Each structure stands twice: as structure tokens, then as C-alpha cells.
Task: structure prediction
Amino acid sequence: MVLCAFSIFGIVILIAWQLILRSQLAWDKFGMSFFYQVFTDSYTQQKLYWDPVNEHFSALPFVFGTLVSSFLALLLAVPLAVGLAIFLTEMCPRALRGPLAFLTELLAAIPSVIYGLWAVFVLVPLLREHVNPLLIRSLGWTGLFGDDNPTGLGFVAAGVILAIMILPIISSLTREVMTAVPHSQREAVLALGATRWEMIRMAVLRNARIGIVGAIILGLGRALGETMAVTMVIGNSPEIHHSLLANGSTMASVIANEYAEASADMHLSALTEIGLALFIVTIIVNALAQLLVWAVTRGAPRQAH
Amino acid sequence: MKSDQFKTRSKVRTIIDHLVTSLAVIATALVVTPLVAIFIYLVYKGASSLNLAFFTQVPKPVGEPGGGMANAILGSGILLGLASSIGVPIGISGGIYLAEFGRGTKLANAVRFTADVLNGVPSIVMGVAIYALIVNPQKHYSAFSGGVALGIMMIPTVCRTTEEMLLMVPHAVREAALGLGVPNWRSVLSITLKTASPGVITGCMLAFARVAGETAPLIFTALGNQFWSTSLNQPIAALPLQIYVYAISPYDDWHRLAWAGALVLIILIVLAVSLVRYVTSRGVLKGAS
Result:
């Protein structure tokens, strides 16, 4: 039993060891500059980040893509998830609570590839026909929405599908920390004559805020490592653009796309190093989130969802 | 004058309250809509493309209509069987340790914490690690490596759900067993675990359903296969992998198969999630004791 429990440490060490071992080649050649170097194409004199044929490897566009798509997803998902959690814990009629909670639980269990399938055939055409022209017309002046990509793929599509995918996680954890706030706190504020919103703000959100931040960070962790759905809609080009409607690529998507086809040792090693970076970042992000959530829910009585 | 101010203030507060309430309702509606839309679209598309051939035939060459995903269903079955035989015993044992023997110790807390963190590690990273560990030394893709990748991913989930289910067993049950002079290990195995077994089994099913939909770790371990293959030493097809390949292909007929495959996967997952919910909410565990 103890051995099996220890196997969990073993797995983490095994992954780390293998990733470090296999990324040694790229690390020796590029060192830390792997994550920020920029190459120049010798013919066109243009910036070049990722060129497996000439062994030019820089993780910069993938780091950029991962950060942009994840933050876009958080921007969309967090207000909705917290709103949903508030509705479910504080306002929802009892009869509706069960089915809604069940639905969000179910959504957390749908495989990434199915979200991707839906995004490719429903979300991307929708964005292409209706949303993107609107964004270009109304917000084109910011420079964030250029109209040079007619496919509908890109960061916006990736951000939206990521937001849908991390919503259930953020909202169910937020719900958990909000239900952990003792009832006496709510009753005390209500007894002073507060309205329901004032009660939520003063008693619930204030007490649960650390846990909610934890839930958001956990959602960020999921968004950073989400692979299939993003790979299917982000367009997969290793470039950096100002426009959110342009094609991009994330750390996870480049691994999914190129790993099986990579044959050169340096190419594989560079991809493994991206994987190692992803592993370290998600470990840190998840550990942080877990600590924050525990800080709130520990000691609180466990309630059935 | 004072009372007037008080009245406006209280009116503003009421308005803000209503405003926030409606915002929360709108947020809920905005969340639920795409989710329901995904479901309805999936069932509609999947049901119209699902037929007997889907379950009995292997994929036809490009350009020929028809064909099915029989090889992918079999492949998923083999991969999941292998994954379960690795993930379930180790996960359950780990869970028993956390709930029964190591409860409250620093070590158990560290294991629990690591399991939760490991749960959040992207599956693609697991794929890279297994590629480095098994595929690279063997010099070829194989069903075995895919199964191992999925199995390792099951361990933290099974471990944590087993622990949670065991903790739901009332203390009185344990005390009764110990009071009769049963040794602790015996009480754990044949009393606590037996009482919690419906929960533990559904927890395993949940982990099973989760990895059943995993694609990322299979891309460069199991690789996929257009033909009927049962060998653990060869590349093998898997349902989610096939859905991915077909979804990004340009052929309508393949898109149709992808939708049908997605529906089959979803049905499996809905069943597992509902079962877990039923067991945890209806107090089946307490009834059993």
C-alpha cells in the first residue's frame, strides 16, 4: 500500500528525469536562450522562430501563444464561472441546483477532442461568418483584430473553446470554496439588514476570495496544458502577430503536431524541452492553486455537491 | 430630509441587488447555452451518422464511402484494458493507504498533494515522457506504450476517488470490526473496502471514462492504425485518436465517422458520470453499511 502511494512520487520523478534526459541536446546547444532567441531568415531577412529543416529552434512563439490563448480564456471564463457559482450557491432554486451542477460536472468530463470537433465544425464557422467581422469593424482600430486571416482559426477561436473547457473546473471549485463559508457568517450579515448581494460580497466572496483565486489559477493550469481542442482550432503557425485573429501555436499544440513526425534528434530534443517547460510550469501553477484552495476548504465540513 | 436620504439609499441598494442577481442569471444562461448546444449538436450529428457498419467495419481507403471504426473500438478496448490493469490496482492501493493507514500523517498529505498536482499535468507531457521511456528505446510505436501512458494517468484519479469513498464509510463500521478482534488489515480489506466498493468501482469507472477520451498521450505512443490490429507490439487505433485525425481531414465521409465516434465516447462518459453521481448522492454507501 505504501509502495503504491509512493508510486505517485515515482511517476513525477520518472517524468522529470526522462524529460530532462531527452532535452539535453537542445539545452546544451541553446541554453536559456531557447525561450527568447529570434533567428533571421537568410533569404528574406524576416524574423524566424522555428525552422526544423535548418535547425533553428526558439520556443518564443509557443510561449507567446500559450500565454495569449490562456489569458484570453481566463478573461472570458472567470466572470462567467464566478457568476455561475454565485447563482448556484446563493440564488438558485433547489430544484434547479442538482441538474445544473450535474451538467457542469459532465462538461468537465467531456474529452478535449470532442470540444475540438465541435469547435472545428460549429464555433470556427460561427466566428468566421459573424463574430470576427464584427470584431474587426468595431475594435479593428486597437490593432488587436487585423483582418488578414479569412479562415476563422486563430487565438480568438482557441481562447473561446478554452474558456468553455475551463469554465466547469473554475466554477465547481469556486462553488466548493463558497459552500465552505460558514452559514453563521451569512446570517450575521443578513441580520444587519444587508441585501443579498451585500451579503454575498461581504460574507461569501470576502471569506472565499483566496480559494476563488486558487480556482482561477487551477483553471489557468488547465488552459496552459490543454492540447487537442487548441491544436484543432489555433491554426498552427510558429509566428508572433499583433492580431488576435491571426494563426498561432501553443507549447502543447506544437508537440501534438510535430512530435510524431520529427525525425532529427535536435528537433525531438527541442520539442521535449518545450514539454519539460510545460511540465514545470503546470506543476508550479497547480501546486500554488492547490495550496490556495486547501487554505479555504480545510477544516470546513465536506458537503455533497 | 434624513429619511428621504435613507429611502434613496435603500432604493439604490435594492437596485444594485437586483442588477447583480440578473447578472448572475445571465452568466448562468451564457454558460449553459454553449454546453447544451454542444450536447444537442453532438447527439444530432452523431445519431444521424451512427449505424451498424460503424461498429463492424474497418475504415475504407480515402474516397470510398462507408466503413466504420471497428478497429478503433477494439484498439480503445485493448488500450483501456491495459491501462486499467496498471492504474486500478495501484490507484486503489494508494487510496487505501491514504484513507486507512496514513490518515493525518505528513507523508499521506504529501502523497495527496502530489496526486492532485499530477492530475493537473497536461496529458501531452505524459505522452512525451512515455515516448522517451518506452517508444524511443524500442524504436517503434506500440499499443503497449499507449496503454502504459493511459494507465499512469489513471493512478492519481483512482487513488483520490478511492480515498474519498473510503472516508465516507462511517467510523462505527470500522469500530465494530475492530471490536470483534479483527486485525486492522483484515478490517480494512473485508469491511471498509467492501462497504465502499460500489463507490470505489464507480470511481474507477470515472477514471476509465476520463482516459477513454484522452488523445494527446496517444498521438506518439499508440500512433493510430488504419487496419485491424490486436498486437501489443504494433501501432494500434484508438477512438479519440481516430476522431482527431478524421476531424481535421478534408473528407465529409470521415467527418461523419468522427461525429459518430464522438457520440459513442460521450455515451460512455455520461454513463460513468451519472453512476458516480448516483452512488455519491443517494447514500448507497451508507445504505450498504
